[in-house]
Structures
1.
Amino acid sequence: MRLDADLEVTRGAFTAQAQLTLEPGSVTAVLGPNGCGKSTVLLALAGLLPLASGHIIATTFDTPVAWAGADTGQHLAAQDRQVGLVLADPMLFGHLNLLDNVAFGLRARGASKQSARTRARQELKRVDLADLAQRKPGNISSGQAQRVALARALATDPDLLLLDEPLSALDPQTAAATRADLHHRLATFAGATVVVTHDPVDALTLADHLVFMEAGRIVQSGPPTSVIARPRTPFVASVVGLNLIPGQAVVTDRVVLQTNEGVQIVTAEDPSEIASDTSIWATVDPAAIALYESAATGSIRNTWPMTVTSISIVGQRARVSLSGALLLTAEVTTTSVAQLGLINGKQVWAGVKATEVMVYPA
């Protein structure tokens, strides 16, 4: 089944709009800050929220079926859509064992107890929980419960699987293991999957297509490689771990980006590839930013005085937030943090080689 959605959903004063094309076997991750409309879009696809405008059309073997159409008043009930839904809370039935939890959807659709349990055993085996089939939800871990919820959703052979922050309630170690299990299971799922998440690790490891939402609108979408290479908003850049700097191109024998504040950044871009006075973006990998006690000399063409505003350390690396002529994040070793005496409020110089500045049209 292919799903085409061009929808607008209103919840109180908030409106979310999205255009999605979901192909069989695809995994689409929808990312964005809290309150941007991610879950609203998911609930509309599930049939739990009506459309204010637009449509949702499912096409199977060249036969289109309208799941929803605001103009025609069409609204296929959630139970009549072939959709599986998994939330952050697994919502398992505490009085049923895991086998009957997974079989519940099939039984609700009229399957016999025997056939439903047979399929439930298959799904529990696929998420590596067959040996726990007789346990109650209160006797398993949170990660196992999430895998049971996934098995329950897939047991009904949905055309569309919707996952709303499926790993957000798990601790980091459990989330990592459950993420790997989820990736393995989705690889054999024939339907389309939509994963709503705020975690870039979930998106980059599970999805083959990324959709970014901000303030109820899609601001960028595409394959992970293209989004990582060319983010188009500061939020997208922060998710993929890059510094994003907007400005105008000043082209002579080289390309220079000039910000609205008048800061100039020398690049190694071919002058024939960028037109002067056009709007451009520049990205800089935090690891390409070097920090110094004083202004750098030599081959580094771009240097600015900066103030350290925060430091976060993971393992042997530290991400250092900087303010000044630009807002930047640098990634340095913990040895550099100690040698430079980096603390909040510390005055430093940041340097970036021209070859480390990637430029593209806005």
2.
Amino acid sequence: MGGLRIVTVLAMVLLAGCAPRPTAMRAAPDPAATIQTIHVATSLPLDKAGPQFGTARKPGLNYFRADISVPPTHMPGQIEWPEGKPDAATDFVVTGTEVLGDATRLIAGLRAEGAGRETLLYVHGYNNTLSEAMYRLAQIRTDFEMTMPALLFSWPSAGDPLGYVYDRDSVLFVRDDLVALIKRLTAGRGDRVFILAHSMGSQLVMEALRQIALLGDRTALARLSGVVLMSPDIDPDVFARQAEAIGNLPQPFFIFITRADRALTLSGFITGRKPRLGVIDSAEEITRPDVQVIDFSALATGEAYNHNVPVTSPAAIEILNRFLSESRRPAAGALGALTLRLPGPNAVPR
């Protein structure tokens, strides 16, 4: 990427950072809206849903449940933030919350919500606030018609485009907490966890899985029903060593890439002008047979720097839903057979 383009992207990110960040707001429910119950495990204070840049991190997790109302006017891939007074008829809003005292109550809530014992665990990425991550998970659950209970692991991102190094340190700070959570979620014989990680959250997930492997807990790893790394902000060399330490990766194991991802292009410039895993030129760069790479470049719309195309592009959502509906099995994970009908093993239709 040329110097001028890098400067342009950096300027865009900085300008975006100057805009006030939206915060989840309460409103009365609307009977036509869809309610998505989101459970949350977070190291953030429960009274701080906005940016955290410079905030002192605290060990341990807080737990709560939030009812997110998705408006009847919702369009796939979008988060309809209020532009004025929040209205459940047109906006994402919070209609209810409950603080959960400990992990035991969190697990009980997840089990009570789902018919089975499989949980979708979502780990957000760099420059995210708690509000944004909750709404994104509610949007994903709505657009992909997911029925399994959803759990957000919200780590202490600065929620600021200038907080890249702060966020990378936060990943290391909170790694043990994610390990403990995964072990709790997979403690029972019938327990299953499907992990969806975005951006720098992929680095956090890989570090957690590596640590679980080094602890010798193959049972927890075996109870992962699949992993998706979406736009992973990881050095490919580091990923290779992490995967080597983990050994047999949970199956299925997907990497979603978008070569037009401007956020990862900038990340690569910051970290040594080396392409990140989410923008590799070819799926063949990943040589492990237990990893499937899917390229969403052709479906990029330019929104949000093309950093989360699989869940924001209406075309990508339509394609993913088609494959999910055609390949869904009663015991399958959320994306268990995604590539079965793709025209090539590592690319979406162009």
